[in-house]
Amino acid sequence: xxxxxxxxxxxxxxxxxxxxxxxxxxxxxxxxxxxxxxxxxxxxxxxxxxxxxxxxxxxxxxxxxxxxxxxxxxxxxxxxxxxxxxxxxxxxxxxxxxxxxxxxxxxxxxxxxxxxxxxxxxxxxxxxxxxxxxxxxxxxxxxxxxxxxxxxxxxxxxxxxxxxxxxxxxxxxxxxxxxxxxxxxxxxxxxxxxxxxxxxxxxxxxxxxxxxxxxxxxxxxxxxxxxxxxxxxxxxxxxxxxxxxxxxxxxxxxxxxxxxxxxxxxxxxxxxxxxxxxxxxxxxxxxxxxxxxxxxxxxxxxxxxxxxxxxxxxxxxxxxxxxxxxxxxxxxxxxxxxxxxxxxxxxxxxxxxxxxxxxxxxxxxxxxxxxxxxxxxxxxxxxxxxxxxxxxxxxxxxxxxxxxxxxxxxxxxxxxxxxxxxxxxxxxxxxxxxxxxxxxxxxxxxxxxxxxxxxxxxxxxxxxxxxxxxxxxxxxxxxxxxxxxxxxxxxxxxxxxxxxxxxxxxxxxxxxxxxxxxxxxxxxxxxxxxxxxxxxxxxxxxxxxxxxxxxxxxxxxxxxxxxxxxxxxxxxxxxxxxxxx
Length: 581
Fold this sequence. Notes:
Elements: H1 8-21, H2 25-59, H3 63-112, H4 115-121, H5 123-165, H6 171-214, H7 216-221, H8 225-277, H9 283-324, E1 343-352, E2 355-365, E3 370-375, H10 381-389, E4 396-401, E5 404-405, H11 411-417, E6 418-422, E7 430-431, H12 432-436, H13 445-454, H14 458-462, E8 471-472, H15 481-495, E9 499-503, H16 510-525, E10 529-533, H17 537-540, E11 545-550, E12 553-558, H18 560-565, H19 569-580
Helix pairs in contact: 1-9, 2-3, 2-5, 2-9, 3-5, 3-9, 4-5, 5-6, 5-9, 6-8, 6-9, 8-9, 13-15, 15-16
């Protein structure tokens, strides 16, 4: 699954909506229109003045007349450049604001999307759209807006100027226009799909690379380096192949343009010869007209050539708008009473594609009770945790929190009830205080210190020279896994939810930090309902109830004492765990 591509009407609506967000965008657009039109008219005057110089040479005019026309030529050229540059600036300013707003909207929308939707689509696709596609769109706008604006106004001004000289010069665009039309039609019939395929291949490459980086420990543990490298190599080669196919369409377009240029100059020379021979126009006037046509080759060629960039930019724009076109509708409050911490999974089943991850799961967690899930890797423990957290939507059955489906709870209601701590936690860049107050913006320094004390991180905090003002994360101190996990647990304490889901939250502790993290985890689950995916069986042994999973089913349940007394899976796991310790 991937995030959708926006249709042309959706792209138009989104761009129009973004334009309305820019103050006085309509008036700025009119200013840009006036500047670009004036600049194009001034640029068209240049070849006309050159034609008049030719007539002066033919007529043997005085030096003073040459000087006057030369001064006029310089003024016209400078005026055209200045007016066009100002117009480009205004247009670029508007377009860059639109891109910036689009980027903000996409990130904001992505943060508000249901997590299961992001997981299904793949984080690599979202990362690619927010980085590669935004960069591609920005580069396309920067490159094409000046060219398209200049080309359009220059072509329009030149056509008007040629018609004012003699209507026969209109034969040039009339003869050449069908060639350009056929060339652009052929290009546009193939380029959009090829560029879209290239962008999708880039997203797949990003996904493969991200998975390899994030799962590097698993890759090494299972000696999957060669297979992972092959997958990345195949994804990268797919980008190369599809990129070459996209650029091939541009090469074919170049051949069409060479033919159009030859045809345009040939027709212009024939028409000019006939007009001079019939004394309809002077040599200077025809020279000016031909110079205008020669200058017209540049805008036409640039216009056709930037179709390559335009298509690539449009493909990126469609991918960006595909995320924001249908933003998630906020779930209203369900009317649930104050958080109590009751959890029920009723006959829940969930599948990844064709295979069932969990089947017919029935779990009840009463307020204040801790339930541990144990079992071999792939048994379905993490899937159950994700279903309870609302990160996944069951295919069958119900996941209830305080007698309400978890998907029916609003964000406010869910935050008050549920918090999840996984094995992989993120330390946000900023001060330690900023990192912690994400969970409770109004928390005082005393509350922050109390939370760190409860998770046994106060001694570590006191060892920092800047205390809570210490910068952590990517731009500061790189925290050890144990400390990062303690910060995550401290945030849960500050959030104070009724239900805590811990998905192997102490797995990164190692022998040195096991005791500290387990005590921290006990502090977090105390007086709360908790579902603990237990990596360490001594943590599971302290739970009120233990559920043993195997191949997506709950095969054993009971207290630690009851399960050890049986000759079952848990008894064998406990024996192996005890011997290993």
